[in-house]
Each structure stands twice: as structure tokens, then as C-alpha cells.
From TrEMBL:
Its EC number is 4.1.3.27. It comes from Micromonospora mirobrigensis. It comes from the Bacteria. Pfam families: Chorismate_bind, GATase. This is anthranilate synthase. Residues 446-625 form the Glutamine amidotransferase domain.
Length: 645
């Protein structure tokens, strides 16, 4: 019987090993060794996924430029979508793998960031002022890259780095090395992007970084981190953004599980797990979820524009994914895809790249985000001999001389407390049909998307309440006939820019809906445009309301809701006479900011009732739907009423 191909022995003997991958998933006591030929394809739909038996079939290296498949702006660096077609698969025990991997230091020269700390800090300040401060989004991830040159064999250096990651890192989702013949990727990614097994779709938003550099963490500092509003809001925002994605790939949206504390050698993160049921082709799941908001920003489409404006270079594989595609014993497709972060890329010539980014939110400081990039790179840099090593971690946190941080009762309580203000709609398991409101079953709603896929979450809420819902982009001028309700939805941008094509199109749609008296709901950007048509002044807030949760009055009832906005309408009174009839306003008593409006057959809300931050969002929607669909619209009052004169 021929012996299985052993690429590690080939490397040790100085022979060409051919393409292969070594993967440790979570903190398992074994690694998967995949071998096979590499093919390059153009699109995710072209990734090979044969049906000849169970098991892993393809390992795909998906670069950031594939975001172009969604029509999103990007700098095209030409980096290929490479696929290792698995024709050999065996497992190695962790001890066996460590014995086979080179136990030698990695030697590099010329190490340094392509963007130094001062320039990166200036970029952070620009993004805060010019993008978040002007309503372009809630958060954005801007990266920079440490570059160096590896001395000696690049592949042996990569394998040595893998060994050091296996020994010195912990808590990673995947610890891996992939060799395609043209490049080496080696890293320890903390974050599952998306996986599919048994019809269950899982995503894993991670955000918030507690730095401890491998030393015993300061318990008081950890508790301050867990209660820090910036860190809490940062995780909430990426949770919302990944719920938008789950709304696309799971039939009933995602259920939120957690939060948890993910402990690694140099830092700890907070994270949630999202679970939903889906039946889409796993390649479509990959396409609809390109890419994680934790490495891009939100809303996603505009985040890609912001990234292109401020980075000006391609991202290569940074923020893309590794994707292991296969089939189970029943022939169903499977997928496991970690995000390509905390990952080094090494060329055959020894050029080393370690990209790393920080999430910029309204509370960010340039100094803090510079420090975060250093902390996130620390694990990989230590493995490459470019930074201090953390304590040995092959046995988990206990092997480093301490118990898991999450075992502390106060830490657990601080994590549990994060769910207190959130919407139970997303936290609780929902029985289909249990939340349908009388009179709504079968009624039809159209949601117009203003480039913010919060509309997918809105659609799930409406369906849970009984409506038949479809979503279409703002550019689609399709007919409105047969719709019981039209929702003009959220999106980034300045509603005062009358010449902007999106603002003009959505304003024109709202004007037609009001003129025709069609039942209309406007959300966030839609609400701002509606307020302008009603004669209210639009104002840019001095401090953006991006990822802000507040209790505000909504037509006489206090409601806790989530805001993602930089602009607001202002009013001096609670009632307004308009050409479309009398309008009732809910506004802030201090500054006159208008949180909600309603008139005959129309309504608008500045906040996002669909957000996980809107604890009372479903109740607000139920009340608004009663107003819009159970009461006569202005069109019915003026044209169909038997009392018209």
C-alpha cells in the first residue's frame, strides 16, 4: 500500500511538497492535513464542490477584491481566488504535528508598518470627522500592513511560525498554514465568519479588545473594559450588522446567543454567536455575507467606499476568508469559513505582509486605535520573531498559569448584563406564527432599501407580524401596485443634498406616495426625507448618534430604541399643519429633535425599530402598522369616503 503524501517530510528534505494546508480548528488536539491541486476561479459560484461522497472537498482562499461580486467599491489588486481541491485528507495529533514542524526561530529583516503611527493616527481623525461625523456610517475598519523580509526558506519559516502559534496562541477559531505554490498564508484567526452544517447557519461577530500582553490580566481593568460604553456599543454595532447578513441567508433571521469572552494570548475579545436555519447553496451564503463588518464597517456598501477612499490600496487577502466547503454523509453542503485576520502572507521570495486594522467608532481616539493595531498583530508578530512571546498556551488558559477569565462571577455577570437593554425579538427563540397580529396576515409590504441592509431585519420583523414582504433597491423604479404598505428605508448620506441621485430618487418616491395617499412608513434616512417634505428643518448633530440607545417619547409612550444617524429634523411644536394633513410629532424636549412623525396614512421614525438596540422596536412597529393599515389613509378619506362633499 503506498504511503500517503507527507508534505512536511518533503519540506524537511528540501523537496517541493506541492500545495497543502494544515488546520487546527478551535483548541482541538489534532490538525487536518489537506493536499491536492490548486485551481484559480473568477467567482465564488465557480468554487468546485463535487458531490462524490462526504467530507471536505475544497479549501478556497477568498481575497477582499471578491467584494466586487456584490457591486461594491474596492481597489482591485488582482489577487486571485485560489482553490485547493482536496484529494488527500488525514489528521495529525497535536503532539505529532509539533514534532514534525520545524522548531526554529524565524529570522526577518527590515520590519516596519507601511503607514507609521503618526500617519495612521491622522487617518483615524479624518475618518471620524469626514465619514462618521458626516453621516456616512456607524463604524469603519481601516487597516495598515507590517512588512518585512523573511530570511531563509519562506515555507520553513511559515511552518516554524505555525508551530509557535500552536504553542503560544490560544482561543483561535482556526490556526493554520496554507501553501498554494505561489503564496503562504499562516495565522491564528479568532473569528468564524460563517459556517453551515445540518442546515444551521452560524456567524460569530467579535468586537472590543482588552489588551494584556500575555501577563496576568488586571481584574479591575477587565471589569472596566466590560462596562466601557465604547466597547459595549462597538460590539452591539457589529452584532446589528451581522444580523443584517443573517436576515439574507437564514429563513427566519438569526437568534443571538451570548455574549462570551474570547481569551487569546495577548488580548481578549467580546463576542456573540448568531444561529439561523438556511437552505441556500453555501457559495451563495459566502457571496451574501462578504465581508464581516468587524473588518469593514457599517453600513456595508458605504463602508467599502470609505475603505477605498482612505486606504487607496488593495487589501489582498486581509478581511477575506478561508472557506472549507464539503458535504456531509447525507450529501448536504457544508461550509466553515474563518476571517483572514491575524494572518501573515509570505511570498516565495520571502516578502512578508501582516495586515491589521482597528474599528473606528464615534468614541474612538487616534491614540487608542493605533495601540489596538499593535495589540492585534502581537500574536502573529511573536510567532514571526517580531515581538515578545506570550506564555505557553497549548493547554489553554490553565497552562498559562491561570483559570479562564470568564469563570469569574463578576465577569460573567458583566457579560450577562449586556443583554439587559437589547431587543428580545432577536435574543429569544421565536415560534413561527406566534407573533402574527390580527388583520395583518397576507397584507403586502414593499421595503425600499437606501443602501443599508437593516432593511433585511425590518423584513423579518414585518413577516413575524404577519406581512408578506419584499425588498428592492432604491434604484429600482418598479411599480407600487398591489402593495398595502411602502416602507422607505434607511441608508447613509446627507438628506439635505438635493442633487445626490439617491436622495433625489427617494425624496421623489416619498413625494409620489404622499400625493397618492398610499400608506407609507419612513425609517431613518427615509424619515429625514419625509420630514423635509413636511417642511421641517434638517440639522447635522454635533455628536453623531451612531449606535446610540436612548429612551425617547413615541406618541406619548416612553420607548427604548436604537439610533444610527448623524442628521435629525427639528421642530418647535408637537403639531404641524401640512398639505398632506395634520401631523403629530414626537420630539426631544431639550433640542427639538424629531424622533417620530405620523399623519393620515403615513408615519416616520428616526430610530431603527429593527435594531437589536431597540428593545421596544417590535411594539413600536405594531402600533405604527395599526395606524397605517387599520385606519383609513388620506387617499381613502378624500376619495373613497361616503361623507366627502
Amino acid at each position: 500500500m503506498p504511503r500517503p503524501h507527507d508534505p512536511l517530510a518533503a519540506v524537511a528534505d528540501g523537496r517541493d511538497p506541492g500545495p497543502f494546508a494544515l488546520v487546527r480548528r478551535a483548541d482541538a488536539d489534532r490538525l487536518d492535513l489537506f493536499t491536492g491541486p490548486v485551481v484559480t476561479v473568477d467567482r465564488l459560484a465557480d468554487i468546485p464542490l463535487p458531490s462524490d461522497g462526504p467530507g471536505p472537498h475544497t479549501l478556497a482562499l477568498v481575497p477582499y477584491r471578491q467584494i466586487g461580486e456584490r457591486g461594491f467599491t474596492h481597489v482591485d489588486d488582482g489577487v486571485p481566488l485560489e482553490c485547493l481541491r482536496v484529494d488527500g485528507h488525514r489528521t495529525l495529533g497535536l503532539a505529532e504535528a509539533l514534532a514534525a514542524l520545524p522548531d526554529a526561530p524565524v529570522v526577518t529583516t527590515g520590519g516596519g508598518f507601511d503607514i507609521d503611527d503618526t500617519e495612521y493616527a491622522r487617518t483615524v481623525d479624518r475618518v471620524l470627522a469626514e465619514e462618521i461625523g458626516r453621516g456616512e456610517g456607524a463604524n469603519f475598519v481601516i487597516h495598515r500592513t507590517l512588512r518585512a523580509t523573511v530570511q531563509g526558506s519562506p515555507l520553513r519559516a511559515g511552518l516554524a511560525a505555525l508551530r509557535r502559534l500552536l504553542v503560544g496562541e490560544r482561543g483561535a477559531y482556526w490556526t493554520f498554514l496554507v501553501f498554494t505554490g505561489t503564496r503562504i498564508l499562516v495565522g491564528a484567526s479568532p473569528e468564524r465568519h460563517v459556517s453551515v452544517a445540518d442546515g444551521t447557519v452560524l456567524m460569530n461577530p467579535i468586537s472590543g479588545t482588552f489588551r494584556h500582553a500575555g501577563a496576568a490580566p488586571d481584574r479591575a481593568a477587565l471589569l472596566r473594559f466590560l462596562r466601557d460604553p465604547k466597547e459595549v456599543e462597538e460590539l452591539y454595532m457589529v452584532l446589528d450588522e451581522e444580523l443584517k447578513m443573517m436576515a439574507t441567508v437564514a429563513e427566519h433571521g438569526g437568534q443571538v446567543i451570548g455574549p462570551y469572552l474570547k481569551e487569546m494570548a495577548h488580548l481578549a475579545h467580546t463576542e456573540y454567536l448568531l444561529a439561523g436555519q438556511g437552505s441556500a447553496d453555501v457559495r451563495d451564503v459566502l457571496r451574501h455575507t462578504m465581508f464581516a463588518p468587524t473588518v469593514t464597517g457599517s453600513p456595508m456598501e458605504n463602508a467599502c467606499r470609505v475603505i477605498a477612499r482612505h486606504e487607496r490600496t488593495g487589501r489582498r487577502y486581509y478581511s477575506g476568508v478561508l472557506a472549507l466547503l464539503g458535504r456531509d454523509a447525507a450529501g448536504r453542503q457544508t461550509l466553515d469559513a474563518p476571517i483572514l485576520i491575524r494572518t501573515a502572507e509570505i511570498s516565495p521570495a520571502g516578502d512578508l505582509r501582516v495586515p491589521v486594522g482597528a474599528t473606528l467608532v464615534r468614541h474612538s481616539t487616534a491614540e487608542g486605535e493605533v495601540a489596538e493595531t499593535h495589540a492585534k498583530a502581537a500574536g502573529v508578530l511573536a510567532a514571526l520573531g517580531l515581538g515578545p512571546e506570550a506564555p505557553t498556551a497549548t493547554g489553554g488558559a490553565e497552562a498559562a498559569g491561570r483559570r479562564p477569565l470568564a469563570d469569574d462571577p463578576e465577569v460573567r455577570a458583566a457579560l450577562v448584563a449586556r443583554n439587559g437593554p437589547l431587543a428580545r425579538f432577536w435574543l429569544d427563540r421565536r415560534t413561527p406564527g406566534a407573533t402574527v397580529l390580527p388583520g395583518l396576515a397576507g397584507r403586502r409590504a414593499l421595503i425600499v432599501d437606501g443602501e443599508d441592509t437593516f432593511t433585511g431585519m425590518l423584513a423579518h420583523q414585518f413577516r413575524a407580524l404577519g406581512l408578506d414582504v419584499r425588498v428592492r433597491p432604491w434604484q429600482d423604479p418598479g411599480p407600487l401596485d398591489g402593495e398595502d404598505l411602502v416602507v422607505v428605508g434607511p441608508g447613509p448620506g446627507d438628506p439635505r443634498r438635493h442633487t445626490d441621485p439617491k436622495q433625489a430618487a427617494m425624496r421623489g418616491l416619498l413625494g409620489r406616495l404622499l400625493d397618492q395617499g398610499r400608506p407609507t412608513l419612513a425609517v431613518c434616512l427615509g424619515h429625514q426625507l419625509l420630514a423635509g417634505l413636511l417642511g421641517l428643518r434638517l440639522h447635522r448633530r454635533e455628536a453623531p448618534y451612531q449606535g446610540v440607545q436612548r429612551e425617547v417619547p413615541v406618541f406619548g409612550t416612553p420607548r427604548r430604541v436604537g439610533f444610527y444617524s448623524t442628521f435629525t429634523a427639528l421642530a418647535d411644536a408637537d403639531r404641524l399643519a401640512t398639505p398632506y394633513g395634520p401631523v403629530e410629532l414626537s420630539r426631544d424636549a431639550e433640542d427639538g429633535a424629531v424622533h417620530a412623525v405620523r399623519g393620515p396614512g403615513f408615519a416616520g421614525v428616526q430610530f431603527h425599530p429593527e435594531s437589536v438596540l431597540s428593545r421596544d422596536g417590535t411594539a413600536v412597529l405594531a402600533e405604527l402598522l395599526a395606524h397605517l393599515l387599520e385606519q383609513p389613509s388620506r387617499m381613502a378619506t378624500t376619495h373613497d369616503s361616503p361623507h366627502r362633499g
